[in-house]
Amino acid sequence: KAIFNVAMDNILKLSEDGKTIIGVNDEKITHITIPDGVTTIREWAFLGCKALQSIDIPNSITTIGIYAFYGCSSLTSFDKFTEFTIHEIGSYAFANCTGFDKIVLPDNLDWFKDHDLTTENVFMGCTNVKYLYLGPKFQSRPESIGLQTLDGLERIDVAPENKLYFSHDGVLYYNYSDYGGSNFIGLLKYP
Question: What does the pLDDT read at residue 178?
Answer without folding.
Answer: 53
